[in-house]
Design a protein that fits this description.
26% of the residues lie in helices and 28% in strands. It is of the alpha/beta class. The protein folds into three domains: 2-108 and 240-308, FAD/NAD(P)-binding domain; 128-237, FAD/NAD(P)-binding domain (3-Layer(bba) Sandwich); 327-403, 2-Layer Sandwich (Enolase-like, domain 1). The strands form seven sheets. The chain has a five-stranded parallel beta sheet with strand order 3-2-1-7-18. Strands 21-22-25-24-23 form a five-stranded antiparallel beta sheet, with helices on both faces. Strands 11-10-9-15 form a four-stranded parallel beta sheet. Helix 1 runs parallel beside helix 8. The longest helix is centred in the C-terminal third of the chain and has 17 residues, at 292-308. The radius of gyration is 22 Å and the shape is globular. The structure holds flavin-adenine dinucleotide. Flavin-adenine dinucleotide binds next to helix 1, helix 8 and strand 21.
Amino acid sequence: MRIVVVGAGHAAVQLVTSLRQDGFEGTLTMVGDEPHLPYQRPPLSKTFMKDGDASRLLLKPESFFASNQIEVIKGTRVTEIDRANKHIVTDRDDTIGYDRLVLAIGAENVRPPLTGADHPALLELRTLAHAETIRERLAVAKQAIVIGGGFIGLEFAAMAALQRVTSTVTEASSRLMARAVSPAISAHFLDFHRSIGNTVLLDAPVAEIAGSNEGRIESVRLADGQSLAGELVLLAAGVKPSTTLAEKAGLQCRNGIVVDGQLTTDDPAIFAIGDCAAVLTIDGIHQRLESVQAATDQAKHLSRYLAKGEGGTSYHAVPWFWSDQGDQKLQIAGLPSAANYFEARPGDGSCLTVLGYRDDHLVSVETVNAAGDHMAARRLLALPGSLTRARIEADGHDLRAIAK
Ligand code: FAD
């Protein structure tokens, strides 16, 4: 039996690791298009901006793959899946046969349809190569412009401010990180960024990016006519799932590669996990989450299925996520987007806990600098049945006490 994994990021590495731990003895091959050994992405917008130490990013040392007989093919892009003959084709014109194929091909940055959005001096952040370029530019910059007030743009702006480069962050919607967090958390981070010297413009969509012949961005023009200038311009306008390979192979894709509760596509020999996968949840909807947690938990679930044949129970895990912005550690358990009522409970200093309810049942807990509440929330949200607002109020909102 040969399992081939396309992509060599968080989901892929967890999968090959778990497959060996779960006793899979067949051939394992992982094909990734980046030139490096698999590395962690979250530090790229956080600690790496400061220390630049790529060796600390590796997900596993080279020796791990060798000793576990996992073949890692780097710098090689898979261009085609031949489902009839069960092989993949690479940009080196090689073909690799498979019995089971796992697509762990992640997501890619969105380039909005704006004049100038393809300017080569416009920076983006997804890969180690991008982060290295940004670090070089940061070292000589005084002022940055960040297009997009989501997690990655804000993490960058916080790290840049620590290095005395302040940013103007332009966000098209009326609040920061709007798709993923509650209004109270958006407001908290708006205050935080302003307090460290960043300028945040809300309801401020970009109309045009104007470049010069010398390979520089001259200005970023907003829809209201305002023109921004800065030596470093980061485009952080969101990501989309990588689906081209799957679409070309005729697999069903809808905001991600569509998979069932066993992470199987409409071809029973092909699976998808991580940022690229739209997974059928126990609520009967397809959901795609861009987080290390989702990539890791889906990989572990698929490994049990492939190595041990443990099917039956559909994939389910409490989503959780974190974002470090300066000294503000945001942690999210559950999905705030599922809530229709929020209750913000400020704690000591900069601590904040926001409880999200759907019809009086707890569905999310966002915390800032309150790791204990976050861990308790993860335990509570994983319990069968849901916790009511009345119960939480009766216990004085003490999540840690309720979780004991
Ligand atoms: P990836 O890790 O993106 O791996 C996919 C790999 O597949 C890539 O190397 C890609 O180049 C490769 N690939 C794609 N197509 C092909 C092909 N055709 N052939 C070969 N290889 C291919 N998540 C959090 O939970 N917390 C955070 O704080 C956080 N911070 C982040 C900061 C940054 C800067 C970024 C970019 C992401 C962050 N994330 C964070 C998101 C997290 O990194 C992703 O959710 C996670 O990496 C998803 O893992 P994956 O394996 O699905 O995809």
